[in-house]
């Protein structure tokens, strides 16, 4: 049986990685109107996918688990491995039962928010909704950590955490394996990355208001500096004693971003002194992508 989607993407809507939406991608529930016009969407359900009945899943698990247990006992040719064989077969059967459960998700990124929707058990199940409206959030913090074991890359862990004005944080996290490039299409990281990009665009209006009223845009942080302010052609670093130290971009000697750490150094800074040197981590600054956009727009400083 072929099922019809409850929502069809309009022209111009793409996947979270920017590709064309496949014709067999089934959006089992439409996006909520609260997140605004949809920019990207994805689903891991296809039109032809149907749930497997519980009885069929149990039968399949028993058959596969039983065959594995019999195979272990047959190869060992001894009754002493009966318990091991039965336990191994039971574990495999349970894993297979869980893997064949009907469980799918779809996600949307809109101009005003994002949402993930999940169904479990059947197509008629009521979806579980995890939604974030941008108007309810204050700041976004992003952390990405490349993991290595004995010098060998083992994967990258990421967390995108929106602080909400009220209520608990909204988090998107996971792992992918792509050391020097972005993950493959369909990876959940693309949803988080696109959400960050659209969130940054959403904040630009308030950025312009702050720039017009204050002459700078402030990014508060924990630690030292307590905040970084960006204005036209200058940066201000608010130290722990709350004294702003203004530095013109033309007076900066070194500007680097490495290992997730921003470093800014005044041309008069001495190697033995911390004066005129400022550093902070990417994960510690709120709305880091917006920070990069504002930094390039107002000072001309740009990172690839």
UniProtKB/TrEMBL annotation:
Spans traversing the lipid bilayer: 54-75, 81-99
Keywords: Membrane, Transmembrane, Transmembrane helix
Record InterPro entries: DUF6585
Source organism superkingdom: Bacteria
Protein name (database record): Uncharacterized protein
Species this chain originates from: Pseudanabaena catenata USMAC16
């Amino acid at each position: 049986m072929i099922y019809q989607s409850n929502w069809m993407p309009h022209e111009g809507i793409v996947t979270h990685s920017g590709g064309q939406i496949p014709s067999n991608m089934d959006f089992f529930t439409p996006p909520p109107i609260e997140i605004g016009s949809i920019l990207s969407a994805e689903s891991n359900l296809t039109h032809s996918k149907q749930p497997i009945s519980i009885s069929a899943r149990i039968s399949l698990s028993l058959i596969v688990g039983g065959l594995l247990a019999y195979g272990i006992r047959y190869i060992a040719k001894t009754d002493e491995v009966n318990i091991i064989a039965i336990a191994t077969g039971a574990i495999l059967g349970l894993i297979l039962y869980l893997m064949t459960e009907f469980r799918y998700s779809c996600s949307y990124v809109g101009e005003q928010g994002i949402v993930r929707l999940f169904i479990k058990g059947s197509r008629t199940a009521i979806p579980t909704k995890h939604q974030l409206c941008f108007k309810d959030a204050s700041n976004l913090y992003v952390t990405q950590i490349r993991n290595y074991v004995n010098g060998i890359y083992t994967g990258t862990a990421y967390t995108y955490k929106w602080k909400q004005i009220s209520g608990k944080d909204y988090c998107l996290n996971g792992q992918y394996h792509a050391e020097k490039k972005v993950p493959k299409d369909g990876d959940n990281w693309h949803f988080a990355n696109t959400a960050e990009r659209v969130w940054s665009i959403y904040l630009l209006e308030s950025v312009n208001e702050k720039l017009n009223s204050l002459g700078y845009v402030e990014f508060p942080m924990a630690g030292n500096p307590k905040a970084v302010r960006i204005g036209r052609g200058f940066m201000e670093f608010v130290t722990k004693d709350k004294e702003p130290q203004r530095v013109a971009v033309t007076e900066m000697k070194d500007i680097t971003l490495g290992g997730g750490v921003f470093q800014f150094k005044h041309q008069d800074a001495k190697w033995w002194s911390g004066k005129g040197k400022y550093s902070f981590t990417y994960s510690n600054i709120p709305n880091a992508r917006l920070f990069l956009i504002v930094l390039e727009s107002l000072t001309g400083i740009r990172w690839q």
